[in-house]
Design a protein that fits this description.
The chain is an all-alpha fold. It has 14 helices and no strands. The chain has a domain at about 20-205: Growth Hormone, Chain: A (Up-down Bundle).
Length: about 325
Amino acid sequence: MTDITASAHPSREQSAVPFRNWLAVFGGVLGAFMAVLNIQVVNASLADIQGALGASIDEGSWISTSYLIAEIIVIPLTGWLSQVFSIKRYILGNVILFVAFMIAGGFAWNLEVMIVLRALAGFFGGALIPVAFTIILTKLPPAKQMIGFALFGLTATQAPSVGPALGGWLTDNYGWQYIFYIQIIPGVMMFMLLLRGLDDEPMQLNLLRKGDWLGIGLMATGLAAFELMLEEGNRENWFDSEFIVKTAWIAAIFLTAFVVLQMRRKEPLVNLRLFADRNFTVGSGINTILGMAFLGQCSSSRNISRRSKVTARFRSVRS
């Protein structure tokens, strides 16, 4: 009876979490918040950035698109790259480079430079989101993981809500450059938390020779084309545009080839066999639907706010 009770109610020693682990969790959650917040604050101030760089609306859309394309490519690669360089070295290096390219964005002198800097920021910032999941799962026992996921959930709900207001306020009061500088303080905090909270592990550079480079190429090309189709589709009137049709075909061909290749690999880059598990598939589907609904609502609110801002400026000019 005592053994049954002990197994049903784990002791404090079993559920206790070292303080270092909580530092790592808070650092990972802060990184995910930074990555999501960055997208929102830049999108909220996109009109001002376009005007400062002398870009049209269509040209300026590449400032957001380049970031998202780089981000969506690096997210599936994060697990493999964390094994190659060790999770501590990989995430600390990404934090440094992400903040560096964000600061550099405030000094961009033309549209081309801004697009390149945003793509680099997206490549290094995109890793912050999946690494937060990894830290929660590896640093917290099952009894405490729900607390970690609840903290992570705050990034998905608060960052899209705070981002547009913060970006607009900084742009109106200090200039659009400051939306890139706000990552400095949380970036330093995240670096210190992860430096103290994560353990040193050896790198496995030999995995680079065994890397599925064909799969990486197929995945990167397919995801880039797919993201480009989704980002530019509404602006190009969807499949009435030859450009959108081409990107759709590229995405379909390359992503299909990637799926076939991964299913044949004994050690795939992305383990798609997980979708054979019903709970995993249902959970992924629900998460996708919730993300589309929530971020779609935030996007609509941002667009309404942007239109109101442009209308107010137009009226002030007329008066």
